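User: Here's a chain of 134 residues. Predict its fold as tokens.
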Amino acid sequence: MATQSNTKMVQDLYSAFGRGDITSILNMLAEDVEWREPPGGTAPFKGIYRGRDSVGQFFARFAEAVEVESFEPREFYTHGDTVIALGHYRFRAKKTGKPYESDWTMVWRFRSGQVARFQIYKDSAAEAAALRDG
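Assistant: Prediction complete.
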């Protein structure tokens, strides 16, 4: 039944994100979590974050740079300690005012009932173009 509880936890994470409840998200992460945002482009929140405090910095940088217009998780696939979620988002870069959107895939890996690793796959070129001045 861990697979069902892991899927439910991912859904709960997305609900917390929708409410802006970053504290709840951080509490679902392992102390040594590894959080991976694609390293390319100009996003001020790109990179690899290790540990809850570091992931908190990711969310602070994200909130400074981007306004969420829509965020739609659509499908969930679970195998063992891994949950793969597919969805779509539309964001707006705060600095430039440019909107951007992407289908996305997020891979969540669990250990002992907590998120141990996160990786997102998205259109980072569209993100970079929206965030770039000029």
